[in-house]
Amino acid sequence: MAAGTAFYIFAGVWGLAMVAVLISAIRLCYRVEERSDALRNRTGLPMRAQWLQVIANAGVARDAETQALRRRANLRFLVILAGFALFGLVLLFAGPGG
Question: Cα 56–84–53 angle (5° rounding)?
Answer without folding.
Answer: 15
